[in-house]
Design a protein that fits this description.
Strand order of the largest sheet: 19-18-17-22-23-26-25-24
Bound molecules: S-adenosylmethionine
Helix content: 25-40%
Keywords: Methyltransferase, S-adenosyl-L-methionine, Transferase
Distance between the termini: 36 Å
GO molecular function: tRNA (uracil(54)-C5)-methyltransferase activity, S-adenosyl methionine-dependent
CATH topology of one domain: OB fold (Dihydrolipoamide Acetyltransferase, E2P)
Protein name: tRNA (Uracil(54)-C(5))-methyltransferase
CATH class of one domain: Mainly Beta
InterPro entries: MeTrfase_TrmA_CS, NA-bd_OB-fold, SAM-dependent_MTases_sf, tRNA_(uracil-5-)_MeTrfase, U5_MeTrfase_fam
GO biological process, one term: tRNA processing
Length: 704
């Protein structure tokens, strides 16, 4: 029997076996670690349980939640437990049932959740009390009593990809003995704890097979990597997770985070990537403070608390209660100036608020004739402006690339006005052409723009370099040079505009009307004439392209062009009907017809945290561009998307030696046109120092 069908059948059996506990509030089920099995299992479980028990893993669970759950179980495997099924390892769909906690070897003692003073709880109290007739007012204004939490002593095995320390009551060896003796493991997730440490922790909540804890104390084996955190709020505020270690260690952790997420999704692919392909985390050569250009502190109004005592800041770690924050060390200087003013303004009119609000503080530049000055704005509707020094250098020669990277390191620690002079000197001394352009980007304070400008020059340079390298590789293998760029999920045009100097034409697509307007204005602001922007869903960019490897298709890959045309005279040879998105949504001031031949086009995709869609990815490979650069802030979703391409056979591990027998073909081969890619590099970028977040750039080169 096919292994998948067998797994589904077993999952069904397990649910049947457990039906005697179905009256209880919690259902015990068996879980494997593989993504696909997990999905099919969830489908079966949902059907059986009518969806009501699937509190933590619904069909639409966020990829990061699924990844977190998978992390726990992959960790079990790493600890030496090779076969979860043989050991009958079980997990929980719903951990609220106290009585079933006994089922584990080491359940939290009382598993009580500390009562959290939050909007959610106040609302719950309100809902409850509304059904009661006369005690409503008393209940609403009473501060809820905290429950008694459990205290546990733990050993920390490793840091999870969300920055939490994966812990158990035993060391790895002791745990293995226990589990191999037929017992079940229980895990604890402890923030700010480091691998190898013994810690005391307070159980806050129970989740899928683990308890969420607060760190109380480090009992012994304090990690040598621990340092004094820079921020006085660190350890309580939920904003940063890694300030307890130095910056170099943070970068090492982040590389491991990305590796383990990729490994979970596709271990074979991970093992096939060479060290040189899986690169170190790129940073901006600072300690990683004072970088964030946007912060969003918030506050809530409670009936039991005098308004003058309202806290304005960020959530406490592990709870929805807000911590009063006067300064944020990862914010830029001007953002912190804005924070003081926003706090003062809010407290002055606090009596007017009934519920609470989120404040927006965003850096901007006031641009004069000869210079610019950093400032801040406090209104989401205001337009802000950022100036990003962009390096234009075509070289791919490694020693020259290193020189440019050094220049970029210097730049992040100096004023923008020095940069052009430095680039000129570098150009003269190194003997290759390098230019720096201080590009201006305007956008609404509330709309998307990256939040760390210090590293953006490197991110853009690197992305450009990857395309230049892909182009060289293609030329060496007998294909044409890459001359065109599609910037998908383009926001206010950061990548497309910054990289436009190296391409004949650039098109961008973006769903937000505001952002697309900004992208158009930004290209004009920087005197760029070869960029066109289109508003719509990313998938629409392929709406009219015939699959280039379908049976019906008889044309060559180069027939599958994206033609973006302005509704203008001379556009009559468009293959798209009048009124289609690609025909009329172009707001290109240069009034140009832009055709993107896949064999000479690179596509950048930079989707939101939830990743792209199968529909988009399928059409992307049908289109078959010469290179794809996938930039992601949601690494689990990126790994999922790449895995989809691997499973469809679009990504291969090695260039096949015998192309005559393989399904590879030249672009003008009319019989077989399936696009095949290789991952040429995986490079994490630290856009979010001190936090567990990381931006990951994956380059795919088309081999055929
Ligand atoms: C991570 S941001 C990247 C923006 C831009 N590349 C940059 O670096 O500034 C993702 C962008 O995708 C846009 N977006 C979200 N869903 C989309 C969709 N279905 N189609 C096109 N754009 C979308 C968002 O509005 C947002 O601007």
């Amino acid at each position: 029997m096919n292994e998948n069908i067998e797994n589904k059948r077993k999952a069904e059996e397990n649910l049947d076996l457990d039906s005697n506990v179905s009256n209880k509030r919690s259902q015990i089920v068996e879980l494997d670690t593989k993504g696909e099995e997990l999905n099919s299992f969830v489908k079966v479980a949902k059907k059986k349980l009518n969806g009501k028990q699937l509190k933590f893993l619904k069909k639409n669970s966020k990829p990061e939640v699924i990844s977190e759950i998978k992390s726990f179980y992959s960790e079990l495997l790493e600890l030496g437990i090779k076969d979860l099924k043989t050991l009958n390892q079980k997990v929980w769909f719903n951990s609220n049932a106290q009585e079933e906690l006994e089922w584990c070897t080491n359940p939290p003692l009382t598993a009580a959740r500390e009562y959290i003073v939050s909007k959610e709880n106040v609302e719950k109290t309100e809902t409850k009390t509304e059904t009661k007739s006369d005690s409503t007012d008393i209940e609403k204004t009473k501060k809820p009593e905290p429950l008694k939490p459990a205290i546990v002593n733990l050993y920390v095995h490793k840091l999870l990809t969300n920055g939490l320390g994966l812990s158990t009551v035993e060391t790895k060896e002791e745990l293995l003995k226990l589990v191999k003796g037929g017992n079940k493991a229980w895990f604890y997730a402890v923030p700010f704890a480091l691998p190898g440490e013994y810690v005391k922790a307070k159980v806050i909540d129970n989740s899928w097979g683990y308890s969420l804890c607060d760190l109380v104390d480090i009992v012994s084996n304090k990690s040598e990597k621990r340092i004094q955190p820079e921020c006085k709020y660190f350890g309580k505020c939920s904003g940063c997770q890694l300030q307890m270690v130095d910056y170099k260690t943070q970068l090492e952790f982040k590389k491991e985070f990305v590796k383990s997420v990729f490994d979970l999704e596709n271990p074979e692919l991970m093992s096939s990537l060479k060290d040189c392909e899986f690169r170190d985390v790129v940073n901006n050569a600072t300690k990683g403070f004072g970088y964030r250009t946007k912060i969003t502190p918030h506050f809530e109004i409670f009936k039991w608390l005098p308004k003058s005592q309202t806290s304005i800041g960020f959530n406490y770690t592990n709870r929805r209660e807000i911590m009063d924050i006067e300064e944020c060390v990862i914010g830029t200087k001007s953002v912190n100036e804005g924070l003081s003013v926003a706090r003062k303004n809010t407290m002055e009119k606090i009596e007017e608020y009934v519920r609470g609000a989120t404040l927006l503080i965003r850096e901007t530049n006031i641009v004069g004739d000869n210079d610019s000055k950093k400032a801040y704005v406090l209104s989401p509707k205001e337009e802000v402006e950022e100036i990003i020094p962009i390096v234009v250098a075509e070289t791919t020669e490694p020693s020259q690339v290193n020189k440019v990277l050094n220049l970029l390191d210097d730049l992040s620690s100096s004023e923008n006005k020095d940069s052009i002079l430095k680039a000129k000197k570098l150009s003269e001394a190194a003997g290759f052409k390098v230019e720096i352009k201080n590009l201006r980007f305007k956008f609404l304070a509330s709309s998307f723009f990256q939040n760390n400008n210090l590293i953006l020059p490197k991110l853009v340079y690197h992305t450009n370099l990857l395309i230049n390298q892909a182009s060289e590789f293609r030329v060496l293998n007998g294909y044409k040079k890459i001359t065109q760029l599609a910037d998908v999920y383009c926001g206010a045009g950061l990548f497309g505009i910054s990289m436009s100097y190296g391409f004949e034409s650039v098109v961008g697509i973006e769903i937000s009307k505001e952002s697309i307007k900004n992208a158009v204005t930004n290209s004009a602001l920087n005197n760029i004439t070869n960029c066109s922007f289109s508003q719509g869903d990313a998938t629409d960019i392929f709406a009219k392209i015939k699959p280039n490897h379908s049976k019906e298709s008889t044309g060559s890959a180069s027939e599958n062009v994206i033609a973006l045309k302005k509704n203008a005279k001379g556009a009559s040879n468009s293959s798209y009907p009048k009124g289609s998105l690609l025909e009329d949504a172009i707001t290109d001031p240069a009034n140009k017809n832009v055709c993107l031949d896949p064999s000479t086009t690179a596509v950048i995709i930079d989707p939101p945290r939830k990743g792209s869609t199968e529909e988009f990815l399928k059409q992307l490979v049908d289109y078959g561009p010469a290179a794809i650069i996938y930039i992601a802030c949601g690494v689990p979703a990126q790994a999922r998307d790449l895995n989809y391409l691997i499973k469809q056979g679009f990504i291969v591990q090695e260039y096949p030696e015998d192309t005559s027998e393989s399904n590879l073909s030249r672009p003008d081969d009319k019989t077989n046109k399936k696009a095949i890619y290789k991952i040429s590099s995986v490079t994490p970028f630290d856009l979010f120092p001190q936090t567990y977040h990381v931006e990951n750039v994956v380059a795919l080169i088309r081999l055929n």
